Amino acid sequence: MFLKKLLATSALVALGAAGAQAGEITVMSWGGAYTKSQVEAYQKPWMEATGNKVVSVDADNPATPIKPQVEAGNVTIDIADVEYSDAVRLCDEGLLEEIDASALPPAPDGTPAEEDFIDGALTDCAVANIVWSTIYAYDTTKFPDSPPTTMADFFDLEKFPGKRGMRKAAKANLEMALMADGVPAEEVYDLLETDEGVDRAFAKLDTIKDSVVWWEAGAQPPQLLADGEVVMTTAYNGRIFNAAVGEDKPFQIVWDGQIMDFDLFVIPKGAPNKELAMDFLKFSTGTKPLADQASWISYGPARKSSGALVGTFMDGKTEMAPHMPTAEANMGNALVNDFEFWADRDTELSERFNAWLASS
Amino acid sequence: MPEARTAAPLRTADGVPLKTALARAQRRAKWRAAGLVLPLLLFILASFVIPIGQMLFRSVSNDEFSSHMPHMVAWFAENGDAEPDDAAWEALVLDLRQAREDRTIGLIGTRVNYELSGTRSLFTSTARKAEDMEPPYREALLDADEDWADPELWGVMRRASSPYTDAFYLAAVDRTRDATGSVEMVDENRQVYVAIFWRTLVLSVTIALLCLLLGYPIAHLLATLPMRYSNLLMILVLLPFWTSLLVRTTSWMVLLQSQGVVNDVLVWIGIIGEDGRIQMMYNQAGTVIAMTHILLPFMILPLYSVMRTIPPSYARAARSLGATSWTTFRRIYLPQTVPGMGAGILLVFILAVGYYITPALVGGTTGTLISNLIAFHMQESHNWSLAAALAGILLAAVLLLYWLYDRLVGIDNMKLG
Question: Can you name the CATH fold of A23-131+263-307?
């Protein structure tokens, strides 16, 4: 009896000591300029405030390592930054810890978190941090006279000759193909639900297939543009912004047909430092860190209360607001990614996409 | 043995029968030998036999449906091929409810979707509504989505209710089962694996033959040059061999890309125009060029070691008896290098068939090999059973080729170095 008590007490003491001591969590994100924005806006301030350490690791898509890790019972990631459809899919497969939205901190004016986040930014297992979009961008030196302005131009090899860069995945490419083929944004997903719609999208992709260089990591498209490997490429808008404004590259974003999506923080089931990860998540999706993040890369914060706090880019002079996917001027023909569509269809459309890629 | 009883057995100096003493000494030697081999045996068992066995097992076993749909499994066990009755519809709703609660619905939907495309969404979306469903369940389900009446879907669920399946091997050769259970080809726009298997085979043979063509003269030079020069040449062969695979592949990327060194030089000397830059990478050409270079040492080294042992006097004897140099090469030299050629071709071919990094980096879409698809299913789509089935077929194909080689050339005839 005594021994049991002693053991229990010492265990408690050990726990307490561990709590007081600096802990360490591993955060997985998308690399490059995006990871940098998170390190600066979320991780450094959190480390300073709590004395804990963050190990930052990158993946082409942080959603992919989660399933193998959880199934192998060897989870090394405490928190991952994933796309909406992946967050829903992983949650459906029981691979994520559930997150209680009411535990998130309220806005500075007291608005509860559930109301402060943009619609759809909170799900059972995930909390959104940013709004980003897939756009296409071109090298302005290649088209000095009549630059491309519409999604259809991306697929027009006659008017705009040269290689294209596209993400090696079905997601976003199919939507863009349909929009280029004249389908209005609001009808895209209804059409993609049908076999004819999917066939039509692939037929449109066929028209440029031989001219496409496929990329996988988000840092690749600006590199492909800079190297002259492609004259235009689909990309995550923030990466192009950072290359254009931060590094003075001659890149121009075309907002027509942009596809908006959330990036969300999730905690894999069985994460080794779940408590700390939750603490980090609460901290970084707070009003101030989300607003700070936006001054490192042009992704919009997922909280309404952060909007007013967004200032200038790290160069100190570029206003961030007009570069956000959500800016009025950029929303002309915008499509909001249908996460349910992709959570349900990603598997089968990826299969078809791979078969399409492999057939020459 | 009558003699043994009569004749006194031979004994050693300390009186132990010789036979026993010998047996004991031999036993000790055997144990020692076994003890020395044991670590390696255990290592091979743990790192090779067991994982490959597990992989092969996974290719025929998948319990993502059967372990999460207990009511349905029970119904199928009782009713077999029967049309779904009220009990079946109820079992389905009960399981969907439970799966939604347990967050296993994604797994179940994915498993069925492997065999019947477009059904994952059926499971996840219906499960969201299953909580509020009331009898009659058949109508409630069909109301949610009329695809539930599809006999093909029930066929897939029936087969998936057993954890053992041949579906993944069928899928790995672009085949599937229809509603009645007979095997048919999948939709043309989903066929991919057979074509890639063929491509892997053709490219691997091409690469092995190119290596032979390029490596043969070099190996001959190495074997016949005076030591001073041949050592230097050997270093030139081995230096890239010792360099990291990744470094060599990325060097080829620097050379071959459309803004790369080779194209720049061609443009500079005016062979091609600025617009006519040749696409040498992100296609089959890239894969063949880079892999041939990377695998070349595996051809040169066995060839060299065989050529070293061929006495030059044979060729001289042939020439002095009136053979032309071509005849000498064809009748005397070439046959003696067959063991080296066999070893080199087999080595390069087998390595090429399973190559992964190089085609992934320089192969683009037309230069990807079957290993890239296996990796895709391991790392991204997480369809491990299909990955295992593809790997199983690859393994079987390599073993078959090895067997053929043994029959045609003879494995004893092979010299690895």
Answer: D-Maltodextrin-Binding Protein; domain 2 (3.40.190)
Name the superfamily (CATH) of residues A133-260+324-358.
Answer: Periplasmic binding protein-like II (3.40.190.10)
Measure CB to CB from residue A229 to each of B118, B121, B259 and give the nearest one.
B259
- Chain A residue with minimal CA distance to B367? A358
B190 interfacial to chain A (CB closer than 8 Å) = yes
pTM: predicted TM-score of the whole model, two decimal places = 0.81
3-state secondary structure of A235: strand
Option in B106, B192, B381 nearest A93 (CB): B106
Interchain contact B259–A (C-beta under 8 A): yes
Where do the domains of chain A lie?
23-131+263-307, 133-260+324-358
CA neighbours within 13 Å on the CB side: how many for A355? 20
List the structure tokens of A307: 């909007």
Residue A203: count of CB within 10 angstroms of its CB: 11
- Using a CB-CB cut-off of 8 Å, the residues of chain A touching B106 are 89-94
* CB atoms near residue A44 (< 10 Å): 14
Question: What is the b/e burial string over B85-95, where b = at least 16 CB atoms within 10 angstroms of the residue's CB?
Answer: eeebbbbbbbb
pLDDT tens for each residue of B90-140: 999 999 999 988 889 988 998 998 888 778 888 988 988 888 888 888 999
Query: What residues contact residue B361 under an 8 Å CB cut-off, 6+ apart?
Result: B249, B250, B253
Question: Touching check for A51 and chain B: CB below 8 Å?
Answer: no
- Amino acid letter for position A123: T
pLDDT tens per residue across span A6-55: 445 444 444 444 444 578 999 999 998 899 999 999 999 999 999 999 99
The yes-or-no answer to whether A23-131+263-307 and A133-260+324-358 have a common fold is yes
The answer to whether B343 touches B414, Cβ cutoff 8 Å, is: yes
Are residues A351 and B120, on separate chains, in Cβ contact within 8 Å?
Answer: no
